[in-house]
Amino acid sequence: MLSNFFVGRFYDSPSTISKLNPLSKMISTLIFIVMTILAKDLRLSIALFSFVFVLVLNTRIPLRVYFKTVWSIKFLILFMIIINLILKVELTIIAITVLKIINIVLYTAVLTLTTSPLLLAKGIEKILSPLNKLKIPVKNMALSLTLAIRFIPTIINEANKILKSQASRGVDFYSKSIKDKLSAVKNLLIPMFILSLKRADELSLIMEVRLFNLKSDRTNYREERWSFIDTYTIFVHLFMLVIIIAKGII
Amino acid sequence: MEIRFNNVSYEYKGIKKSEKKAIDNISLEIKKNKINCIIGPSGSGKTTLMELVNALLIPTDGKINVGKFVIDKNKKNINVKELRFNVGLIFEFPEQQFFKSTVKKEIEFGLKQYEYKLKNIDKRISDSLLMVGLNDSFLNRNPFTLSNGEMRKVAIASVLALNPKVIIFDEPTVGLDDASKNNLLKILRMLKTRYKKTIIVVTHDVDALHKIADHIFVLNDGKVILEGDKYEVFKEVDLLQNYKIKVPKIIEFSHKVFKSKNIKMGYRDEINDLIKDIYRHVK
Lengths: 250, 283
Known about the structure:
By secondary structure, chain A is mainly α. In chain A, 72% of the residues lie in helices and 0% in strands. Chain A has two domains: 8-115 and 223-250, no CATH class; 135-218, no CATH class.
């Protein structure tokens, strides 16, 4: 019932992009988003789209997965086009905006599909680590994020069971009745809260039993190494960013 | 109610295309008014098979006849509500399927879905609780605070309240102690003999359920590799063990005795009967 719901989806593919350090991938994503926002020219947007497309091909993940991702935001794109047409915005600008959205969605899809959710959380922890000096509890935040990501599939699985349980007792999810669907969601929330609180309680006990100490420094089973290719990736992105900024100034 | 699978296959759709089908071209017939057990190792497709009967999943190939209903990929608009009224399903972990705050609300959920007359609902709820050995004192209790055995009974009662012709149990003995297991077996027997229900039990626990099984389907890698009554199926101890499928301990023991001492003891459900057999042979 929730089989089309891919949160924190990760596609284990043997590509070079998958093997990149999550930190470099996240920095590159940030640079790419800045580039996309700054690109105000249709040719530049097309060039960026071509760049993303090359990356997409290099991930060795079936194109249908990316197509589904873009397809899932069809209504957003449609809504945006309609609003722009009503406001009589130039067609070129509409095309640039659509391309910008598609570029960002595809690039972030490359990031999430090639990086496991736990590695992503680790990457976020590293990116935010300078905030430690400002006494912001980055470690706690990263732990909460890691645990939240870890339990997404479990929660989806449980939600699925509750929905199936309702379906087997007469709720017809194939019917288009909004009333049935709203009632299913309502019935979903109470047990999900109860089960989540139960699990959080059990998890805290388990962590305590295993002498988990938030204040101590943690090591990782697999050390994420920074390689030449990571530096190279960021360099390429920075180079592209400089070109776009320079073009904007000229 | 007749349940027949005709060349049914099912493949899970996900982000990655699965390498094998969860159900692979299965044709079988569930025996009416009998206890049908579906056994097999983890990932063999047992739960998928069960969900297909209830139209929670729609086959990717082939068709399933459930009484007058035909479930196939071209008929997604079958009257699932009516179908599910006739086919009750009890999931593996009852605590994960409750969604109401009291036992009463949990049981009446299905009845309300099928628009039962309100004046009949209370009696129906009490009767279904009674059938599983619980009384009215449970009505206002929170289902999440019950013991495992009680939760399972409430889950069964919530399905029995609808009086379906077919009842499917997914791993009904998981997490139950011996006393609760025996109690459950009694309920299953009663449903078959007194209420003439067709029962489908999906299980790993062959030790508990071989005693009451009338017909057994053995699944492996989405295919039925063996089917027949329990005597026919558990005769094939070596074949089942090759597929890493558990055989009831009592039968495994008899088989070992036969292999090492060439003493044939026959099929015994109860350990006491086996002890008598051994005593007779020793004498």
